[in-house]
């Protein structure tokens, strides 16, 4: 470890930390030592960790504010559910189908990200925040109009703009199945997601994001964030690099969305509203902007917290808010920062000493 | 600073510890899931309050098969994911049967999971057919959406055959859309005339001037409103503003319109609705329930509260018929209850002689009422002929 740069050490520590956490939790789950409550939260935690890490790529690394990350999750979730459900007869193997659904989800979310990003990322200022905010709302309404079903002839899609169409307008033949019923969302989804799949998704997300950040692409993206004019003057194509960050982030969100969608029996588009986008942003901000392992921990802790607070019944969201405020105060507290730096120094010295032996 | 943090943590731990502990195998553990915070909180809170009243009554009267009942209500914020978390929390608690979930989309997600775990569920008010589809452990207290749509169309056909009907519904809501779909197909089959259909969504339910005007222009003298009462109250207000006075016809979600804050109840005069429960009914059961609910929660119970109350009594009847004991695990109890559900008949607040098909669907008579002088009344022959 001695020859490695500090950033690489942190990256490897992140991979190892996530892997160790996974192995411990998975073994506990297999052994039945984990409570039902906690073991049911494993897949959504993986999804939201992936969401937070990918959003960090845009907000932290690229320095653009995106308020519609849940919109990409929504695109990925619904396209992933359609793929996962409709391929049931062709591909009987669940893991293979899940993998395909994730890729499909990532693909469609990337397209959506590209469409949003191309015009907006050419502009300076806060336009991305405004447009992604609108995008999240538009996606919600578009999916409310979507009616999808499949039978032996393949997929049937009706776009219910007038609001007067229903599942019968799909004209499915006998044995056909409706997947998305407009505003009622996707119902009767077969649960395919599993904790190992979630772990693999988180690892892929981390590998993609961390490698991108440490490559010349990442350095260009950060150069644009820090000083756009200076970056342009040395010949960096601003729009291109911003777009790379934004589209990768959207694709990863899409994959996370697909996993999320295939973890529940029903899925409605209103789940992916503005509040969800903000929630993910909170994970990122409290974990630390640009800090990837911070996002992992932020998402995990803040996802589990409301569930841990169930015994407070109706006051739990109040307490959740209080905890958020305390965390913010604490991380900005000078004494705490000092203490943390001291600890890091001590640990660092310890490590170096170990390395020397 | 540190003191505050450690105090908070200590307090949190204390509460967590306090909420645990009760002797295993001596009580029936019934869980409840419904939205108690968030936009749909009014439904979940009412259903869980109603269920709690029933549980208290049962315990006071000696419990089920001689064993006391514990009731644990968990919040799902009307989100499928949170509902599943609530369900898992209940499983950790050792739940044996579940009253819930109150709303449709979370119910579909939870029932799929409960079906593979074999935990019996009885929903007070999740009315979509998707809730009970392909699951043998899922039963409903309320009507299914198709039944409400069909019953409404048939009622209009029988009593107002020449009505020019307009439908306004919420097309991002499973409940509203589901009733509209069956209403329209039944009305078409009956040869009734639908002159206008208007839609709205969650985001546009504060202004209906366009839809109301269009219904008026289309010459509708009967407006069917398959929706909850909050948007319906806005429609009534705006129709009155432009001097449009057709007969308004609602379904069970319309129940509660007389309790909307700041709503002039005189606007609801003459509104007809199909509802399984009327808080103004004079039978002993309803009067008792309404009085108790008023005492405890300071408001008049709506249909969701009545559904929750009935759900607990139905569960009691089923557990007694199946001869279950508190030491059974959830799966054994589930199979036992499934075996007796189609054979039992329960008289409750929301219907006399309720019976169930093995599919989970309830069979009870829908009741049409008309709002008269600010209370529900049975329609007279003259009004029906109008």
Continuous helix count of chain B: 13
CATH topology of chain A: ABC transporter involved in vitamin B12 uptake, BtuC
Oligomerization state: heterodimer
- Shape, per Cα inertia axes of chain B: globular
Q: Given the helix and strand composition of chain A, which structural class is it?
A: mainly alpha
What is the CATH topology assignment of the largest domain in chain B? Rossmann fold
**What general form of chain A does the structure show?**
globular
Average pLDDT of chain B: 85
Describe the main β-sheet of chain B briefly: 7 strands, mixed
Q: Give the helix/strand class of chain B.
A: alpha/beta
Spatial order of strands in the largest sheet of chain B: 7-6-8-9-10-14-15
Helix content of chain B: 40-55%
Task: Write a short abstract of this structure.
With 357 residues, chain A is mostly helical.
Written account of the structure:
- The complex is a heterodimer of chains A (357) and B (386).
- Chain A has 357 residues and is mostly helical.
- Chain A has one domain (6-356): ABC transporter involved in vitamin B12 uptake, BtuC, CATH 1.10.3470.
- Chain A is built from 13 helices and 5 strands.
- Chain A has a 3-stranded antiparallel β-sheet. A two-stranded antiparallel ribbon of chain A has the order 4-5.
- In chain A, helix 1 (6-30) packs antiparallel against helix 6 (195-214), helix 2 crosses helix 10 (274-287) and helix 3 (69-86) runs antiparallel to helix 4.
- Mean pLDDT of chain A is 89; it is low at 353-357.
- By secondary structure, chain B is of the alpha/beta class.
- Chain B has 2 domains: 2-143 and 285-363, 3-Layer(aba) Sandwich (Rossmann fold), CATH 3.40.50; 146-275, Rossmann fold (3-Layer(aba) Sandwich).
- Chain B contains 13 helices and 15 strands.
- Chain B has a 7-stranded mixed β-sheet, sandwiched between helices. Chain B has a 5-stranded parallel β-sheet with strand order 2-1-3-4-5, sandwiched between helices.
- In chain B, strand 8 (222-225), helix 9 and strand 9 (247-250) form a beta-alpha-beta unit.
- In chain B, helix 2 (41-60) crosses helix 11, helix 3 (80-93) crosses helix 4 (104-117) and helix 6 runs parallel beside helix 7 (174-190).
- The longest helix of chain B has 20 residues, at 41-60.
- The radius of gyration of chain B is 22 Å and the shape is globular.
């Amino acid at each position: 470890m001695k020859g490695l740069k500090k950033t690489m050490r942190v990256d490897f520590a992140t991979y190892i930390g996530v892997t160790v956490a996974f192995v411990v939790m998975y073994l506990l789950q297999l052994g039945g030592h984990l409570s039902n409550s906690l073991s049911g939260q494993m897949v959504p935690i993986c999804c939201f960790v992936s969401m937070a890490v990918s959003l960090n790529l845009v907000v932290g690394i690229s320095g653009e504010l995106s308020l519609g990350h849940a919109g990409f999750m929504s695109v990925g979730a619904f396209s992933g559910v359609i793929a996962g459900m409709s391929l049931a007869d062709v591909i009987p193997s669940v893991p293979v189908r899940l993998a395909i659904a994730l890729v499909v989800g990532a693909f469609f979310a990337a397209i959506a990200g590209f469409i949003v990003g191309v015009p907006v990322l050419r502009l300076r200022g806060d336009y991305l925040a405004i447009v992604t905010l609108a995008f999240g709302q538009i996606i919600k309404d578009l999916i409310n109009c979507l009616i999808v079903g499949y039978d032996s002839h393949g997929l049937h899609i009706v776009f219910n703009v007038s609001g007067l169409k229903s599942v019968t307008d799909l004209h499915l033949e006998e044995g056909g199945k409706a997947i998305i019923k407009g505003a009622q969302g996707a119902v009767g989804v077969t649960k395919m997601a599993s904790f190992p799949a979630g772990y693999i998704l988180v690892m892929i997300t981390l590998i993609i994001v961390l490698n991108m950040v440490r490559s010349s692409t990442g350095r260009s993206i950060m150069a644009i964030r820090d000083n756009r004019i200076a970056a342009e003057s040395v010949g960096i194509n601003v729009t291109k690099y911003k777009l790379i960050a934004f589209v990768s982030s959207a694709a990863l969100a899409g994959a996370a969305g697909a996993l999320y969608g295939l973890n529940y029996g029903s899925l409605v588009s209103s789940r992916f509203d503005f509040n969800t986008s903000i929630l993910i942003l909170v994970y990122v901000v409290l974990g630390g902007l640009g800090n990837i392992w911070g996002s992992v921990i932020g998402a995990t802790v803040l996802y589990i917290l409301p569930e841990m607070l169930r015994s407070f019944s109706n006051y739990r969201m109040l307490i959740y808010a209080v905890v958020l405020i305390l965390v913010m105060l604490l991380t900005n507290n000078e004494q705490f920062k000092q203490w943390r730096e001291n600890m890091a120094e001590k640990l660092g010295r310890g490590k170096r000493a170990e390395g020397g032996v | 600073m540190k003191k505050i943090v450690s105090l908070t943590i200590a307090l949190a731990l204390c509460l967590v510890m306090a909420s645990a502990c009760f002797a295993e195998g001596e009580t029936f553990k019934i869980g409840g899931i419904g939205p108690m915070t968030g936009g749909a909180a009014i439904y979940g809170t009412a259903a869980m309050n109603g269920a709690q009243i029933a549980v208290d009554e049962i315990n006071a009267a000696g419990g089920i098969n001689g064993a006391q009942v514990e009731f644990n209500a968990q919040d799902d914020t009307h989100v499928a994911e949170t509902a599943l978390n609530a369900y898992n929390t209940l499983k950790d608690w050792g739940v044996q049967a579940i009253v819930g979930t109150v709303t449709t989309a979370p119910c579909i997600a939870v029932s799929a999971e409960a079906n593979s775990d074999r935990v019996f569920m009885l929903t007070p008010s999740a009315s979509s057919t998707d809730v009970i589809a392909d699951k043998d452990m899922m039963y409903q207290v309320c009507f299914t959406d198709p039944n409400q749509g069909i019953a409404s169309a048939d009622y209009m056909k029988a009593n107002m055959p020449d009505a020019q009907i307009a439908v306004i519904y919420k097309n991002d809501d499973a409940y509203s859309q589901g009733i509209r779909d069956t209403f329209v197909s039944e009305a078409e089959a009956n040869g009734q005339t639908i002159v206008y259909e208007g839609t709205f969504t969650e985001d546009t339910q504060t202004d209906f001037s366009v839809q109301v005007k269009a219904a008026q222009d289309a010459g509708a003298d009967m407006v069917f409103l398959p929706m909850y009462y909050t948007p319906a109250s806005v429609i009534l207000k705006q129709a009155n503003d432009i001097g449009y006075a057709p007969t308004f016809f609602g379904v069970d979600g319309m129940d509660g319109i007389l309790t909307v804050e700041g709503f002039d109840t005189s606007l609801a005069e003459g509104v007809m609705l199909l509802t399984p429960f009327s808080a103004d009914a004079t039978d002993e059961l309803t009067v008792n329930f309404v009085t108790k609910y008023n005492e405890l929660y300071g408001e008049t119970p709506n249909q969701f509260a009545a559904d929750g109350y009935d759900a607990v009594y139905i569960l009691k009847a089923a557990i007694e018929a199946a001869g279950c004991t508190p030491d059974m695990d959830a799966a054994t109890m589930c199979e036992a209850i499934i075996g007796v559900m189609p054979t039992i008949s329960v008289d409750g607040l929301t219907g006399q002689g309720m019976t169930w098909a093995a599919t989970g669907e309830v069979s009870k008579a829908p009741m049409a009422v008309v709002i008269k002088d600010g209370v529900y009344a049975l329609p007279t022959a003259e009004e029906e002929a109008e």
